[in-house]
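Hi team, as promised in this morning's meeting, here are the two structures we talked about. I've kept the exact order from the run log so nobody has to guess. The first one is mostly here for context; it's the second one we should focus on when we meet again. Sequence first, then the predicted structure tokens.
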Amino acid sequence: MPPPVMSPTTLQPSDLAAQAPLFGFGGSLHIGASAAPPVRELQRTGERNGVEVSKGSVRDASVAADVIAYLRPRAVHSEVTGLATFSRPPTVRVVEGTSEKYTGYAVRAVQIVNAALPHDARISFGDAPAPDPLNVDDVPRGSIHIEFIPQAQWPERSVKGERAVGHTQSRITYIPGAQRNEVVDADASHILIDSMEVQDFSEEKIVYVIVHELLHALGFSGHTDPERFPDATLNPNVPANLPRFLLARIDSDALLAAYARFRPGVLPEEITAQNLGPWDEASRHARGALGILGGEVSFGAAFRNGLAQPWASGPAPPMDLAQNRGLSGSATWSGALLGVTPAGEVVVGDSSLGVNLANLDGRLDFTGMEFDGGGMWGDGDLGYSVEVRGNAFNNTDGDAGVVTGAFFGARHEGMGGVLERSDLSAGFGGKR
């Protein structure tokens, strides 16, 4: 479980949901999607501002046949036919009365799902709680409402039972037909989580259940076949060993295909490899690494099938930055940035983070930004005001984009994070 690096009381849910997900694995922290490549499969290509840079192509995506086999049954519903995806990004809201803790779990689930979606298809999160819906018919169009209530209080037509920890009711726009009713798109969804059943679950397990139900809400009907897809998050049962990043690769790739390659309402027989289009089973990676006391800070970006996924990781500090008595006044970390544009072009630059340890405000600058093949990216510079919370930081002002960062190492010797913009997705890191 990741440490409480950012509290929902200090940032609005909409701000938190726009940031990259944070995972804690034993003594390490990871920011962003599960895109970090095996180092042995990359080749070192040089150095940038003290950071070792390596690149390469790794076969880490699902094969096209698996994506088709996953998606085709998702387009078959009890009364309508077609993939019921949203034509515009929906807004998630928790129902009024939801605790701050469960609101935070819902926010984190949205972060995880968003990391798999194209930038223009990402879900937003509403700051104001939604009125208590009686059923899905009371949810406004373009909305997904999440409600944590005992199963005994679930609305009629809900699937109840000992194994039903969560349930999603969806409202679908369709065109009536003589042979079948054909889907136009998703209209709204109502996610129900059994509050009695999950009260003893770990945070990771509750977030996993919400991620599973969000897949249903985003148009994935039914459950996957555990024999064909043993690791899928959309499998019918909560596994004893959760996927490391709570969203399995096949679910992630299916989301990308559903929202980037197929239109809402696509029929099962139209979900074919030909209509999927060119599908690369390998990702292109740019990775940076620098050593710190007791470990390594690594970061980078992966690009596959039009989706750029930035990430950063490193050893978790034993205390918050403000509690580090070895630091006073101000501190500076410097290193590099490695990113990818929507066209798959690699961008490199220098990174610098300065923090005033008295008020925990700081400045994050990226300079000398250029395309890997030569030529300046934009005007070459980006700058952000940042605010530190616990061991993490986020941008509060500056250029366009969302920054999610954290400090690494026993004495906060390292820092790293991800920058996400419509024109650039990048990982960055630095050393004090």
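And here is the second protein, the one for discussion:
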Amino acid sequence: MAGTDRIALVTGATNGVGRVVAGRLGRAGWTVLAHGRDEARGAALVREIESGGGKARFHRADLSSLVEVRRLAASAAKDHPLLHLLINNAGIGSGAPGTGRETSADGFELRFAVNYLAGFLLTRLLLPNLLAAAPARVVNVASLGQRDIDFDDVQLERRYAGSDAYRQSKLAQILFTIDLAGELKDRDIAVTALHPATYMDTFMVRQAGHTPISTVDEGADAIMNLAVGEAGRSRSGEFFNGLRPARANAQAYDRKARERLRRLSLSLTGLG
């Protein structure tokens, strides 16, 4: 996928692997819509991309609020009716050891809200722009850390652990990926998900008490493989571990579970 006159929205673009991916896209000639929460970091990223001859615009939003997700979608759609690439990269980890259950601005379990619901809503709202730009792609940055979704306690109100919340939210991304890919299989939009790299050297990993063993550049290689490489076009609906196709948690391939999650997500985001 060539970069000329192509528009990409990258969430979580002001830090970690998202920043590296945004910079690479900018250098490849893409116009980068860079999302983040920090104005100063956003401005610095835009300057960096523009100094290398690229084009970028910062879009501030707190993805723990569905109102702000809607504002982000509206702002991006207004400025760029055509969207060729959406990378749902923004997320939060399991938190520091001992961190208790937290909720979003809308009262949802925080990791489910930020890691999954925000990307679900943003993608749904920007589908008209992706369809108008087809061929287009959606890349969901998930994880090998996956846990079955407990549909009787999705918000983890009965028993909470940050690691469970994180892994459930990441599996939800993969169910969404497979479900949306099936919906769009004849519309020239490829949808993929991936585990970019294990324990990248990021704040999220260090906060959780893990020792980094991979670089953000390794993670960026894997994301770019699906964003602009042949694999991202030809293997829609698949989950990747790094650069290779992989098998996700079995629940991802359960059609009834995917349908149940879709209905729940449409309801929670006000789309259903």
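Starting points for discussion:
The chain has one domain: 7-268.
The chain has a mean pLDDT of 94.
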